[in-house]
């Protein structure tokens, strides 16, 4: 294993410190490419509008139709903290929107690998789902998506 030190621009560290960022955090942020305190602003107003996400309108219509038709939804999540959070938010949100049949599956990364695999798609199908929803999964799950489609999953 080779440890590579990141460049930490002193002027950036100084500027972050002058803006009120703790010195240790200023060094960490500067090493990761943060150049100004404004880049650390996580207020909701700074988020991109949801309707700018590619395909979000189609996804919303698909989910609305699935909920109104009482289709069986299954969320496939990653096991880490953001995957678990996304799964919980997804399940709760869908239920608040009226979905009556919502399940989830958190695969074992050691056994199943990462992302939506063909074997995971098979398990989703075997659990009786109509609609497969992924959260916090890789976008290169070509084989898993192909298997899900072949099984008739939306």
Structure, described:
This protein has 154 residues and is mainly α. The protein folds into two domains: 37 residues, no CATH class; 101 residues, inorganic pyrophosphatase (n-terminal core) (Alpha-Beta Complex), CATH 3.90.1640.30. 45% of the residues lie in helices and 9% in strands. It has seven helices and three strands. The chain has a three-stranded parallel β-sheet, sandwiched between helices.
Q: If you average the pLDDT, what whole number results?
A: 93
Query: In CATH, what is the class of the largest domain?
Result: Alpha Beta
Query: What fold name stands as the CATH topology of the largest domain?
Result: inorganic pyrophosphatase (n-terminal core)
Number of strands: 3
Radius of gyration: 21 Å
**Total number of helices:** 7
Strand order of the largest sheet: 2-1-3
Total number of distinct structural domains:
2
Structural class: mainly alpha
Distance between the termini: 43 Å
Order of helices and strands: HHHEHEHHEH
Low-confidence stretches: none
Please state roughly what percent of the residues sit in beta strands, choosing from under 5%, 5-15%, 15-25%, 25-35%, 35-45% or over 45%.
5-15%
Major sheet: 3 strands, parallel
Furnish the topology, listing elements before pairings.
Layout: H1 10-18, H2 23-31, H3 56-68, E1 73-77, H4 81-96, E2 102-105, H5 109-112, H6 118-126, E3 131-135, H7 142-150
């Amino acid at each position: 294993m080779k440890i590579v030190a990141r460049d930490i621009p002193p002027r950036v560290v100084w500027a972050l410190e002058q803006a009120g960022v703790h010195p240790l955090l200023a060094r960490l942020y500067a090493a990761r490419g943060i150049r100004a305190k404004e880049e650390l602003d996580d207020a909701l107003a700074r988020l991109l509008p949801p309707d700018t996400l590619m395909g979000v309108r189609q996804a919303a219509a698909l989910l609305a139709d699935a909920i109104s038709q009482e289709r069986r939804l299954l969320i496939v999540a990653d096991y880490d903290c953001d995957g678990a959070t996304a799964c919980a938010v997804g399940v709760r949100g869908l239920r608040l929107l009226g979905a009556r049949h919502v399940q989830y599956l958190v695969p074992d990364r050691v056994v199943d690998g990462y992302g939506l695999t063909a074997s995971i798609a098979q398990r989703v199908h075997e659990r009786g789902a109509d609609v497969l929803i992924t959260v916090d999964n890789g976008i290169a799950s070509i084989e898993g998506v192909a298997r899900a489609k072949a099984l008739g999953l939306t």
